[in-house]
Amino acid sequence: MHTTNEIRRSFLDYFASNGHEAVQSAPLVPYNDPTLMFVNAGMVPFKNVFTGLETRAVPRATSSQKCVRAGGKHNDLDNVGYTARHHTFFEMLGNFSFGDYFKEQAITHAWTLLTEEWGLPAEKLLVTVYHTDDEAFDLWKKIAGLPESKIIRIATKDNFWAMGDEGPCGPCSEIFFDHGDHIWGGPPGSPEEDGDRFIEIWNLVFMQFEQAAGEIVGNLPKPSIDTGMGLERISAVMQGVHDNYDIDTFKALISASESLTGVAAQGENRASHRVIADHLRSTSFLLADGVLPSNEGRGYVLRRIMRRAMRHAHLLGAKDPLMHRLVPALVAEMGQAYPELGRAQPLIEETLEREEVQFRRTLSNGLRLLDEATADMNEGGELPGETAFKLYDTYGFPYDLTEDALRSRGIGVDKAGFDAAMAQQKAAARAAWKGSGQAADSEVWFDIAEREGASEFTGYTSTTGEGQV
Ligand code: ATP
Ligand code: MG
Ligand code: MG
Ligand code: MG
After folding, report:
1. Looking at CB atoms within 10 Å, which of 38, 183, 204, 262 has the fewest?
2. How large is the average pLDDT for residues 384-403?
3. Per residue in 54-66, pLDDT tens?
4. For the purposes of burial, counting CB atoms within 10 Å of the CB of 199, is it exposed (0-12), middle (13-18) or buried (19 or more)?
5. Mean of pLDDT values over 362-385
6. Nearest C-alpha to atom 12 of ligand 1 is from which residue?
7. Contacts for 357 with CB less than 8 Å, ≥ 6 apart
8. For residues 201 and 37, what is the distance between their CA atoms, to the nearest angstrom?
9. Average pLDDT in the 28-33 region?
10. With contact defined as beta carbons under 8 Å apart, do 90 and 40 qualify?
11. pLDDT given at position 429
């Protein structure tokens, strides 16, 4: 059996022995892209290399990059605990060619690693290509010997990658593993593709075109390769389990939370343990990379994730703060690959404990209010936006936490009403400042706060502070 730590090593070794420079994971807070909340893909630290702004001595690299997808364009927060394959924090294994090799070699490497080095059965693999990418279609046939029925042409944006409106872009080819017909789901492009039977393990991006103002304007002089494979997903495949949450790393974390709460990860409690294990990873890694909980921006995303986990700890009946007591199990699993985790352990534990002590002061009262407000509701009901806002403002419930809390009962939340209540509070705060004779530049401060509040990465900002918690 291959441990997750061994699989990471094996991936990096394979590409290093094929001329790639092994590069350490960059921190989760992007240093080269102010528009991005967190690094969410392996290529992010190399953006300037792909656009030609920077050059590297070696034109090939490989990495296992820490990624967080809990906000912005890629937001997998709501999937966590409910799908077999999504995390808020995960590691993306990647190999990169900066104007060096292209499609043929990228496909050869991927196929060789999966089927020869790692010995995965070829008949369980299938791939997608962008519908116009005949070159990739033919290469898969030639290199992998895949039958045409297992090279699926996809016409959607899922198989076309672009950095934004400017710069490199190109078709992708995704590799899927078939976990078997005992699991519901259909192949990519089919009506049942949302199921978890066919799981995307690796995405190969062929950067070959140049974009300007959202239009393809020509071919790149030197095409490049960017790939990303979810470490947890390939671990599941290699460890013979279907579900990411059944791999070694997650088993260790979930068993730590089972023994500290005394509650088995079964039935209705299963999702809670999964959310806790997942959020433990994202919050700890964010703290290790210098993000601190706050009421806006990155810090608020961190706080939202923490509080969500803390509600699930409460659901499991934890009488005392739980999250900080799980950190040693995480450091034991991942501290060797990521020494920053061990270095930051005291900070992580103190911060998690302080946050949980603080949040628990208002958590039960908030949950009581939520119960009262929904007592008469059935599936399909909707919590008024005003109530969701009160939970946010007075009890410190992030909006998505309220949504998550009602999800199992099939009750929704009036988002427009919530936004309206938030806007009203902001307007009132602004008016109060105006009449207070404060420095003239406070107006500027409000403008900034609002502009930031409107941008995708800031989360819900509240100029008056988020509840007195
Ligand atoms: P999916 O369609 O399953 O959401 P994706 O197409 O959004 O995945 P990519 O952006 O192509 O994912 O990222 C490259 C690889 O990273 C994926 O093939 C997958 O193995 C992994 N990955 C992506 N999102 C997650 C996640 N939230 N948790 C774990 N692994 C992920
Ligand atoms: Mg996705
Ligand atoms: Mg996909
Ligand atoms: Mg993909």
Report:
1. 262
2. 95
3. 999 999 999 999 9
4. buried
5. 95
6. 203
7. 321
8. 24
9. 88
10. no
11. 83
Distance of CA 33 to the CA centre of its chain: 17
pLDDT for 373 beyond 70: yes
Mean of per-residue pLDDT scores for the chain: 91
- Which residues have CB under 8 Å from 116's CB, separation 6+? none
Best residue among 233, 235, 274 to mutate for probing ligand 1, ranked by most atoms within 8 Å of CB: 233
Q: What is the mean pLDDT of residues 231-241?
A: 98
Q: Does the CB atom of residue 7 touch ligand 1 within 6 A? A: no
* 268 within 8 A of 127, measured Cβ to Cβ: no
Q: Is 90 in the pocket of ligand 1 (CB under 6 A)?
A: yes
Nearest CA to ligand 1 atom 11: 203
185 contact partners, CB below 8 Å, separation of at least 6: 192, 193, 194, 195, 196, 197, 198
Q: Give the type of residue at 318.
A: A
pLDDT of residue 46: 95
Nearest Cα residue to atom 8 of ligand 1: 200
Which protein residue has the closest C-alpha to ligand 1 atom 31? 230
175 close to ligand 1 (CB < 6 Angstrom): no
Cα angle 126-102-124, degrees, rounded to a multiple of 5: 10
Residue 13 scores a pLDDT above 50? yes
Ligand 1 touching residue 68 (CB < 6 A): no
Phi, psi (5° rounding) for residue 162? -140, 145
Measured between alpha carbons, how far is residue 71 from residues 88, 89, 463 in Å?
9, 12, 20
- Residue 177 three-state SS: strand
Q: Which residue has the higher pLDDT, 432 or 3?
A: 3
- Look up the ipTM and state it: 0.99
Confidence of residue 1 (pLDDT cuts 50, 70, 90): low
